[in-house]
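FIELD: query
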Amino acid sequence: MSTALLVMDMQQDTFAMVGEQGPALLARSAKAIAAARAANAKVIYVCLNFRPGYPEISPANAVFSGLKAMGKFTGPLGADIPAELKPQEGDLVIAKHRVSAFSGNGLDMILRAQGIAKLACMGIATSGIVLSTVRQAMDLDYQLVVVRDCCADRDDEVHRVLCDKVFARYAKVVDVAELAAAL
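FIELD: result
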């Protein structure tokens, strides 16, 4: 079975959102990406990205309208991925325009075309893209792994509850040290 590591919303502005957790999260995330590459898993970056003028954002969407007002996430796709996590040749970088990694793009088609049936998920925020993606991937019949210490949320208790109680129902929840064995 082929596996992909989804590196989700791990962009400069999202690392800033998790404050002092950011540097340690960045270091662990680099280890997870290296472990995935060593296990021959496909590394796929899913990035929040909008066209100039934000035509993808409805005024009715309060969350994304706030991003529009701040002028965030409009640069070249992948340009705001931290240097420590930069994509390498053969990795994919996919834009998304809503919370789930599957929203408004061809991610599911690409995964199926590549014969990928197992996804390892990591990203910022646990209560945002990770939660939405895990739930949607489960409905799409993917086998799932969540890399607990390569996810972060502004609220540590929300992160803990999601990893320990919610994700554990749908996925194998591991730390980066256990990732290679889970792939």
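FIELD: remark
The first strand starts at residue 2 and ends at 8.
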